Amino acid sequence: MPEISPNAIVTDPGQLAEDVVVGPFAYIGPDVRIGPGGRVDANAMLDGDVEIGPGTHIYPFAMIGQPSEPGQPGGRVRIGPRNIIREHAVITAGSDPDGPGTCIGSDCLVMIGCGLEADVQVADQVILGPYTQLARGSRVETFVRASAFTGTRTGATIGAYTFTSGYAGIDRDAPPYAMVQGFPFRVRGVNVENLKRCGFSDQSIARLKEAFRSLFNGIGSGPVDPARLAQWEAQADSDEHLGYLLSFLRRQQQACQAADAHDASAGTSVREGE
Amino acid sequence: MADVKVVCEIAPGAQVHPDARVGRWCVIGPHARIGAGTVLASRVAVLGHTTLGRENTVGSGTVLGGDPQDLKYRGGPTVLWIGDRNRLGRNVTAHLGTEAGGWVTYIGHDNVLEDTSHVAHDCYVADRTRLGRGVLLAGHIVVQSGAAIGEMVGVHHFSRVGRFSRVGPRTPVRRDVPPFVDFYSEDYYWDPPMVRGLHEAGIAAARLPTTIEAQLRAALVWLFEDESAMTPKLDVLEAQNTDNPELAYLLQFCRQSLSGVYGRYREHFRGQIPPEAEEYLPRELLALVKIRMQRKES
Question: For the whole model, what pTM was predicted?
Answer without folding.
Answer: 0.92
